[in-house]
TrEMBL record:
UniProt-listed Gene3D superfamilies: C-terminal (heme d1) domain of cytochrome cd1-nitrite reductase (2.140.10.20), Cytochrome c-like domain (1.10.760.10)
Protein name, as recorded: Cbb3-type cytochrome c oxidase subunit III
Pfam families attached to this UniProt entry: Cytochrom_D1, Cytochrome_CBB3
Record bears the keyword Lipid metabolism: no
Domain Cytochrome c per the UniProt entry, residue ranges: 19-97
Swiss-Prot/TrEMBL keywords: Heme, Iron, Metal-binding, Signal
Family annotation (InterPro entries): Cyt_c-like_dom, Cyt_c-like_dom_sf, Cyt_cd1_C_sf, Haem_d1_sf, Host-pathogen_enzymatic-act
Transmembrane segments: none
Superkingdom assignment: Bacteria
Length: 514
């Protein structure tokens, strides 16, 4: 090239206006839609709506677009998109779409997959592990689930799950089936006898959690987008009914949490945006008319009795972010994340006490235990680094136990004197505290893998071993003798989050979440 021409081209390049960033909606359609779906509603990859991304900081969203996500199919776009485009795309994803996304009965039906006819499932397990001492381990690192033999600590099966399972998977009363919910609204039924997925359905765009009825007939799923409760047939997951979540004035609300209350034969539902607590009876003999307010939902065919599969409402002063039952299931202990907590009697349907729980209680991880003949509950705190212990008769706080740091989860078992708490939200994320349930003191601390997140404990059915997640990618599942605290096994896993023992769950051990 002639020197003059080269200089001219260089001059033109230097003077040219910077490349304009493309329209972010067009960028989305070109680069993201194939995996993340039209309208950002999710397809083979997760939904990219603000509700789905609220746990990520804007800088993290940019970083994922730029660099991709390890161990997933999300590739980095650093070589394809300019910095401005990446910033514009991240900004676009943070804004709700112009038309409100919905998830209709037709969308649900279109997503439904029955992979095996429940009538053709084998009558007995196809594996040799004790079906009552299996663990289900959720691995968030590469979105898989491991089924683990709880006697031999060996994997029995491993399968790909939907993106971002959240909350505890729930079991059928006999422990044969396990049900998972993903943050993106997918619900999966898995058979622990034949080790296969039975059915799969997307019930919403953003889901809170699910509960399974104690008679094994129903699965109730609480959504935050759209604001609905979806009732599924537990045997094959066919959608039965969608309840819009609205209060008496018609204001819509996201669901905070739904749990099963076995002795009451009902689901109890806390709402995030309106101060109401709902109880939905699945007892066919439920009283047809409840005193007080009953939503009139014009039930579907064959469900004419308003008391059956129909919400009855307890009006509250405060919304509830999460809750916990007492062992009789007559009381709900509910808290807003700001730490205002209340005890609600489900029979007389009103608040009977207030609790002082400072910080940000995480009641879903609460446990109960008996000490000197009295029952106590203990709940971790997402802020403060305190474990609050409450007397369940007087509803007084008896102690705030200082932990190494703020944590998420608490676990114990009838056969161990210790409750194990993590400090995963703090700089001491590698430290577990073992609280003596007799003295309410931290008896000792335990660090299995220094510098790594040591969190979420679950016991074998006999309480002899504690299984701890090393929540890293790659991470490990470490098995510890609950008496000697010696490590007895370690299994490589991809960021194991929660693990759930069939027996402890179906028998509703006092030391585990329900
Ligand atoms: Fe969870 C359970 C709410 C963030 C892992 N979490 C629950 C439950 C609720 C809840 C209401 C009980 C439902 C159930 O088990 O059926 N979680 C919330 C939040 O409000 C919060 C703080 C913010 C949010 O993003 O929703 C939150 N949770 C997280 C996480 O960041 C965790 C650590 C990692 C993740 O996978 O998202 C997390 N939550 C868990 C786990 C359980 C859970 C592992 C089940 C615990 C159990 O042992 O039963």
């Amino acid at each position: 090239m002639k020197p003059l021409l080269a200089a001219g081209l260089l001059f033109m390049a230097l003077c040219a206006p910077p490349a304009l960033s493309a329209n972010p909606a067009t960028l989305y359609d070109t680069h993201c839609q194939a995996c993340h779906g039209p309208g950002r509603m999710g397809a083979m990859a997760p939904a990219l709506l603000p509700q789905s991304l609220e746990r990520l900081r804007p800088a993290e969203v940019e970083s994922v677009i730029r660099n991709g996500r390890p161990a997933t199919q999300m590739a980095g776009f650093a070589g394809t998109l300019s910095d401005e485009d990446i910033r514009a795309l991240a900004g676009y994803l943070a804004v709700p779409p112009s038309s409100l996304p919905d998830w209709s009965a037709a969308d649900m039906a279109a997503s439904y997959r029955l992979l095996v006819d429940p009538a053709r499932l084998p009558p007995r397990p196809v594996h040799s592990a004790n079906p009552q001492n299996l663990f289900v381990v959720v691995e968030a690192g590469d979105h898989h689930v491991t089924v683990l033999d709880g006697d031999r600590f060996r994997p029995v099966a491993r399968f790909a799950s939907h993106f971002a399972l959240h909350g505890g998977p729930k079991f059928s009363p006999d422990g044969r089936f396990v049900y998972f919910a993903s943050r993106d609204g997918w619900v999966t039924q898995y058979d622990l006898y034949s080790l296969q997925v039975v059915a799969d359905v997307r019930v919403g765009l953003n889901t809170r959690n699910l509960a399974v009825s104690s008679d094994g007939r129903w699965v109730l799923v609480g959504n935050t987008l759209p604001e609905t409760l979806v009732l599924l047939d537990a045997n094959g997951l066919r959608p039965v009914r969608t309840l819009p979540v609205r209060d008496r004035e018609g204001r819509v609300s996201r669901v905070s949490a739904v749990y099963d209350a076995p002795p009451r034969k009902s689901f109890v539902v806390a709402l995030k945006d309106v101060p109401e607590l709902w109880e939905i009876s699945y007892d066919p003999a439920a009283e047809p008319i409840y005193p007080g307010y009953v939503h009139d939902y014009k039930m579907g065919e064959g469900i004419a009795v308003p008391g059956y599969l129909n919400p009855r409402v307890t009006p509250l002063e405060l919304v509830l972010d999460d809750f916990f039952f007492d062992p009789s299931y007559r009381h709900v202990i509910g808290a807003s994340r700001e730490g205002r907590a209340q005890v609600i009697n489900l029979d007389i349907r009103r608040k009977v006490a207030e609790l002082s729980l400072s910080g940000m209680p995480h009641l879903g991880s609460g446990i109960t235990f008996v000490r000197d003949g009295r029952r106590y509950m203990a709940t971790p705190n997402l802020k403060g680094g305190l474990l609050t212990v409450v007397d369940m008769e007087s509803w007084q706080t008896v102690k705030n136990i200082v932990l190494p740091g703020a944590g998420f989860f608490l676990r114990s078992h009838e056969n161990t004197p210790y409750a194990w708490a993590d400090a995963m939200m703090s700089p001491r994320k590698d430290t577990l505290a073992l609280i003596d349930k007799r003295t309410l003191e931290v008896a000792r601390t335990l660090t299995l893998r220094p510098g790594k997140t040591n969190a979420h404990v679950e016991f074998t059915r006999d309480g002899r071993y504690a299984l701890v997640s090393i929540m890293e990618t790659p991470g490990e599942l470490v098995v510890v003798d609950a008496t000697t605290l010696r490590e007895v096994a370690a299994l490589p896993m991809m960021k194991p989050i929660g693990k759930y023992n069939v027996f402890n769950k179906v028998t509703r051990s006092e030391g585990t979440s329900h």
